[in-house]
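Why do we care about 3D structure at all? Because function follows from shape, and shape follows, mostly, from sequence. That is the central idea of this module. The next example makes it concrete: a single protein chain, its amino acid sequence, and then its structure expressed as C-alpha cells.
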Amino acid sequence: MTTAIDLQLHYSCPKNTDCPIWDTGKRVVNQQHSSQEKNMGWLFRNGSTRKGLIEERTEGWERTNTDGLVITSTCLAHCYRGGSFSGVLWSVWERTFNKDGTESSPKQRWIQCDLLRYQRDFGWGYKDMEESCGPYYFSCPMKYLEIVPIEQYGGNEEWREQVLLHHQRSAEKRRARRAAKCQ
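And the structure:
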C-alpha cells in the first residue's frame, strides 16, 4: 500500500533560494528551478520500476463502509503506450456498489489516463487523469471506448472524437509508409 512517505510531490522552488527537503527518511526528487506546470500533480516512488508502477496503478481494491456498503473497483483492461522513459498508461475501471449481496447503485465505468515518467536517480512516477478531464493525450485504444459506452456511462465526447481522429491519422500514415515501401 502506498503511503504519504512513499510518494513525494515534486517541489518547485524559486531561483536563488534554498529548496526544502522533506525529512521522511526517503530520497526526495529535487527539481530545482523547473516550471511548476511540469511537476504539478506528479507522484514518484523512490526506486520504483515501470513494471511495478503499472502493477500498482492497475491493482483493484475493495472496501466496506460502516453501513455495510461494499465498494469494489476493478481494472478491466490496461496497456502502456510510450517509450523507455515516458508514456501513457491507459486503463478501464469499473466500480460496483453492493449491500447485502445486491447492487445498491448502478456500476460506474471510466477510462483512466496515467502519464508515466522516469526520473533519473529516483524512479518512476505518475500523473493521473481520467476521461472527464479531457486529457490532451489521444492514443487510448479504440476498444476502450467500446468497453465504456458514452451512452451508458457518460464521458467526454470531444475527447473521444480526438481519439478517433488520432487513430485515423495513424492508420493513414501507416498506409502511406507501406505504399512508399512498395514503390
